[in-house]
Structures are given as C-alpha cells and as structure tokens.
Design a protein that fits this description.
It contains six helices and five strands, in the order βαβαβαβαβαα. The longest helix is centred in the last third of the chain and has 14 residues.
Length: 149
C-alpha cells in the first residue's frame, strides 16, 4: 500500500521511526511534512495528507501531533475521510475492521514509540469487515457527510 504520513512539530520526533517501520512492513511512504521541529499548524499537514488519500494517490494515512486529537479533528473535516485517534492496539485494529477508517492518528506526547509502531501494525494489518451492521453504520456516516441522514 501507499501510505501518506504527516505530522506537526509535536509529532516530528516520532515521524522518522514510524516512516521507517511502515517501509519495513513493505509499504511505500509519502511524507507531507512537517520536515522541521519548528512550531507549525497541524491542519496544514492533515489537509495535505487527506488530499493524497482523496485523490487516490495514497490508500491510507498516519498523522502524528502532540495528542493526535487535533490531527483527527482536522482530518475528519474532509468528506470521505474517517480518521481515528488511537492510543491502544485494540482500538487501532477495530477502527479499520468496524469503521473502515482510512487515517490513524496518535500523539507523540501521549504514547511511546513502541506503542506507536504497534498501533501502525494493528491498523495496517487489519481489514474492514465488509458486512452486517458495519456496512450499515459506515453508510450512515456517509449519509451524515452528505447531510442525507
């Protein structure tokens, strides 16, 4: 898969290890920044990453900021993006299996690198369970986006 990776200054120190790990898993990584530890604004990088997914250039994304919350809020402003802020492996796996999430967010100030890599493994290793109530609920999310629910 082609995975887009973005971060702000608060996720910068974790970004390179995550990128290397994703490559070790056999995926291609497209980085959209930031490329320095200088203070910056997370919505810029969330937007750049989401554009790569929505255009079809990338299949999924990983966004890192201080808590993961800002990135997930910014990403979820994009129609067609389902971003989840996770800090445990169970949630990272189930957000893909149950919610067909296409962006994983987490916070460098919340979790360590070992947990971050475990989250990446769980998220990228999971597959959407395309059936039953999961399909109904994901369709309802799309209806909310389209203001048809």
């Amino acid at each position: 898969m082609k995975i887009v990776l973005g971060c702000d200054h608060a996720g910068y120190n974790m970004k390179d290890a995550v990128a290397a790990h994703v490559r070790e898993l056999g995926h291609e990584v497209v980085e959209v920044g930031t490329f320095t530890a200088d203070s910056c604004h997370y919505p810029i990088y969330a937007h750049a990453a989401c554009e790569k997914i929505l255009s079809g250039e990338c299949e999924a994304g990983i966004l890192i900021c201080g808590t993961g919350i800002g990135m997930s809020i910014a990403a979820n402003k994009h129609k067609g993006i389902r971003a989840a802020c996770c800090s445990d492996v169970f949630s990272a796996r189930l957000t893909k299996e149950h919610n067909d999430a296409n962006v994983l967010c987490f916070g460098e100030r919340v979790i360590g690198i070992g947990t971050a890599l475990d989250l990446v493994d769980a998220f990228l290793g999971a597959t959407y369970l395309n059936g039953g109530n999961h399909v109904t609920r994901v369709a309802m999310l799309t209806d909310i986006e389209n203001e048809t629910l």
